[in-house]
Amino acid sequence: MRNQQRERRILNLLQQRGDLSVAALCDALDVSEATVRRELQALERRGLLKRLHGGATLAGVNGLEPQFQDKQEANREAKEAIAAAALALIEDGDDIYLDGGSTVLALARLLHRKRHLTIVTNSLMAAATLMDTEHRLILVGGEFRPKSRVMIGPLTTPIISTLRVRKSFMGTIGLTVADGMTTTDPGEAYTKEQIMQRSQRVILLADHGKFGVASFARSGSLDDIDTIITDEIDGDWQRELDQHDVHVLLAPIA
Q: What is the reported pTM?
């Protein structure tokens, strides 16, 4: 079993059972204790789980969320590949929404290659990246959330409710079949739901580590997504997304 497959298997098992011991993970994966501990360390560094004495639990279960800088560093090559694939879906003159999140920020950094866009965003990081471009930039006001550096909550509604965008590029902390997209903050989930209702096409940017991970607040179901761009996906997830009419666009790391 490859490293990425083991990672997904660990996250899926924690999603099903809440927390597991190292011994139980060794049995489930048929690998050594040293291998399990190495995988747990790597997943904890990416903010996807929290190690406990003798085991681990999902990050979202305990409300753990990595710092924004750490998010940018995790799976950097995958995020850049996903961002490049997302850029190909944007036409000159498009009107788009950029959600918060490190993968969406990677897309924002590529938008200088397009012309005459209208960009709506609640992300201060994306706005700072785009402020010196020729694009029309509309900022969504609201309550500032330092953890993800976005504006969130009911105060975002007055602007979002008056707009209609062709494409929204969304991020997520996790994605499961039962709960769909999830994040750590209800106010952020609220704003995500609002913009998806005002979008003709919802495009989720999510690397393989987001699949099978659940966080605290639900921000939308699989049925709210039109397209997922990811670096890798297994057969079970592909079949599940096909059932929900979600188009999967693969952006493997070069």
A: 0.75
